[in-house]
Amino acid sequence: MTIADMISVLNARVLRGEDKLDTPVYTACCSDLMSDVLAFVDEKTVLITGLTNPHVVRTSEMLDLKCLVFARGKVPTEDILDSAAEQGLVVLTTKATAFTACGLLYEAGMRGVPVPMEWNTEDDA
User: Hey, what domains does the chain have and what are their CATH numbers?
Assistant: First the structure.
């Protein structure tokens, strides 16, 4: 899937990065806790969030993310958008909730970032 495909799936609007819409994307992460994103994301991916503060852009820079999607129609301030553009990020906004955006992208073939899970297999009975 490309970012242009994501725009179609999410009925999103491009806020920055119009020249990078042909960039392929394979995985996404959805979180409003940037500490979780830093802990679990280790590859170039898409971040779906409802946060519009500078921490989102800093986190994206640290992880070399490809695209930010702001859910619920949120639009960050111009200084945050300009900072994202300086990093080469594509920035989108969609009126969909984060949950719905994830579902739509999953249905269209995108998958989540693989997270190592340790399960307790001991029988507690």
Answer: 3-112 (3.40.1390.20)
